[in-house]
Amino acid sequence: MSHNPWLSRLITLSSLKSRLLLGLSCALLLLAGLVLGMAWQVGKTMVQETNMAHLRYEADIIADEITQQIDHRFQALERLSNTLGVVSDTSQISYELRKNDSLLAWFDAIVVSDSQGRIIADWPAVAGRTGLETAELEYFKMLRGTRQPYVSEPFIGRASDMPMVLVSVPRLDSDGRFVGFIGGVVSLDSSGLFRRLATIRLGSEGYAAVATASGRVLYHPNRSLINNENVDLTANPLIDLALDGWRGDGIGSLLDGRVGLQSYAQVWPASWVVGLYLPIDQAQLPLSGFIQKLWWIWIVAALLMMPLLWWLLARILTPLDRLESQIGEVGIGRRSYVDLATSMQELEQVAHTFNRVEDERQQLVEHLQEREAFLDSVMNASPQGMFVADFGGNITYMNPALLEILGIESNILMETWLEQIHEDDRSGAEDMWQHSLKTGNDYMRQLRFIRSDNEMLWLDIHARVVMLSQGGNSLGLVGVVKDITERREQEALQRWEAEHDPLTGLLNRRGFERRLEDAFADFQKTSTPSALLLFDLDHFKPINDEGGHALGDEMLRRIAQVVAWEVRRSDHVARQGGDEFGVLLPSCTLGQAERIAESLRQSVSEVSVINEGKEYSVTLSIGVTTFGDSDVNVETVLSRADAASYDAKGLGRDSVVVKLPTSLGPVKMFE
Question: What pLDDT, on the 0 to 100 scale, is given for residue 644?
């Protein structure tokens, strides 16, 4: 039985033509995979960006609508409060509530309390609600303390057995004294607050949710999660950030464990967080189907075109047999050049280029040993660390000075000592190295290197591509390495000393004011709340006068340690001079600031020093304030906190006074 010789050579891959033909088929398949892979990656990025933009847009709209809903309810209650004034007669109050029956379109019920938190009137009247004591409830404490409108944490209604919140405003007399509150009970199911969320369409599995800043779920498609105390929202880092006041978007785990696109917006009047979620597999479902269709179309087209392409290439590449044979003869020394007689101009150009490259190679071989000897002698004698790398990126030589700097032996593999580059610098250094290899640009980088004896060095690396004088071809890179550890350490020390107090190690006035300016800028841009504490030491002068400045310095150091220990890791503590201290609490509410201030007051009162058998101690007069919309600069905030500290001293020292960014005056919180 006879065989086709062309088919036999193709099957056995014994000829250059058959290998090229097989390589073409593999290249087409690889190209298909690369194109479809790139289409998938680009498409996935576009799909994610498009969906993320949609989520961000929807989250902002929802947050704005809920904010308007809350603001309208606040305004309605404030109008009712203005109508009631400071009237305490329950019959008159009940009459006014009935006259404003239209408010029930926004509220399920209206309640009015006296200054002690007892409910004195409600509408519609519900048995047992009048006389209810709310003095120990969180919303009454917030209203009495801040004199600002407030939305309570969710609770279960007694009559309806449904989740509700209380939207309330304080009642103030003409002197600004707190005389009670007016509250509107809002059902989370039927009030219309979250009507917008039920109309959102995010595919078949996307959804929206609302939670309080404390992590209690107000709205969720899964009704069992609403007001459920066992739901831990902080397990998701993005939700945890949103609960702290962050607004933005990203990719993270959902409550059911799947990965999804997420976007968050803040409802500031109520301290609520709006979140929109779309499982990432659902977002990519249309793209996946499209890529599958493209894949089948490509396979069918390739199967139809492949036989024709193979036949054409077989006819065109016939002269390659002779070229392959002559190149092989040049390689073994039977020929000194290629002499290819063909009418195909492309192959003539290949033969001409090969002959030219072969001539250059012979010239390079003749001078290579001489150049290598010269380069070795120069680099070995250099006191600077130097290295040589080929154009594949592999370092082929390091001089003795560089080996001594790095503390390694010349026979250590490159992969081994590369792991000693600091992990934070390794990726960037490798990326820049590859970029220099591709573009021919100089490589300049400063990075950290961990020697085998665990000493960390700062290295300055400058490498340059070496080009041949003929043809402009690259041979590789030659680099110089300098040990700049001492210089970097000196620069870091100077930066630290410029903003820190040398006695206590805390921030000095300059460093503290810079961080205060940054926090105030964040507040103006995003309304991120922050608090400021200013205090000096009561009874500190006798310590200096009787024990000397050394004893006073010891007391300052101990107090600095206690204050730094009591505040949060994200807070900034400063000694502004003498016995004056400041604490900046970024992303901190007034309630948190009050608790921290009281903790500082108690802890510092326990600090003491002893001199000649006598024990000395100090107390704190702390002024507390927060950023306000009326503040035009940080000097206004500092002045208010300083005035609060002065008021604390006027109250007998060892106390905490809060001054709000309003005209309400100081409020003494602890003593």
Answer: 92
Q: Which residue has the tokens 């139809």?
A: 304
Based on DSSP, count helices (H) and strands (E) in the chain, helices before strands. 18, 24
pLDDT reported for residue 205: 79
**230, 322, 219: which is closest to 275 by C-alpha?**
219
CA–CA gap between residue 653 and residue 601 (Å, rounded): 11
Question: Nearest-5° angle of CA 611, CA 612, CA 614?
Answer: 65
What's the average model confidence in pLDDT over 492-509? Answer: 79
Q: Provide the 8-state DSSP code for 214.
A: T
Q: SS3 helix, strand, coil % of the chain, rounded to 5?
A: 50, 25, 30
Q: Which two tokens stand for residue 100?
A: 């404003």
Query: Which two tokens mark 343?
Result: 């009418």
Q: Which of 183, 208, 184 is nearest to 198 (CA)?
A: 208
Residue 667 has pLDDT above 50, yes or no: no
Expressed in angstroms, the distance from the first to the final Cα of the chain is 110
Domains for the chain: give ranges and CATH numbers.
45-68+194-284 (3.30.450.20), 85-187 (3.30.450.20), 320-374 (no CATH), 382-489 (3.30.450.20), 500-670 (3.30.70.270)
pLDDT band of 380, cuts 50, 70, 90: low
Token pair in block for residue 526:
């995003």
- Distance CA(364)–CA(66), nearest Å, equals 77
The residues, ordered by sequence, that sit 6+ positions from 483 with a Cβ below 8 Å of its Cβ are 385, 405, 457, 458, 459
| Calpha distance 114→144 (Å, rounded) | 11
What are the DSSP E strand ranges found in 484-607? 530-538, 572-577, 580-586
- pLDDT confidence of 181, banded at 50, 70, 90? very high
Report helix angle 285-316 to 16-84, nearest 10: 160
From residue 151, give the alpha-carbon distance in Å to each of 160, 482, 498, 597, 661.
Answer: 19, 62, 45, 25, 20
> CA dist 412 to 397, 417, 430, Å?
11, 7, 19
Question: What would the two tokens of residue 265 be?
Answer: 């917006």
From 16, 426, 63, 52, select the one nearest 209 (Cα to Cα): 63
Q: Determine if the pTM surpasses 0.70.
A: no
As a three-state string, the secondary structure of 7-24 is: HHHHHHCCCHHHHHHHHH
Check if the beta carbon of residue 559 is closer than 8 Å to that of residue 537.
yes
pLDDT reported for residue 183: 92
Q: Is the pLDDT of residue 83 over 50?
A: yes
**Is the C-alpha dihedral spanning 196, 201, 207, 213 positive or negative?**
negative
Highest mean pLDDT out of 407-411, 475-479, 485-489, 608-612: 608-612
Of 379-383, 424-428, 652-656, which has the strongest mean pLDDT?
652-656
Of 123, 133, 193, which Cα lies nearest the Cα of 162?
193
Bond from prior residue into 400 cis (ω within 30 degrees of 0): no
Residue 529 corresponds to which amino acid? P
Give pLDDT, residue 341. 67
* pLDDT in the model for residue 469: 47
DSSP states of 565-581: HHS-TT-EEEEEETTEE
Helix intervals (H) in 536-651:
541-566, 590-605, 634-650
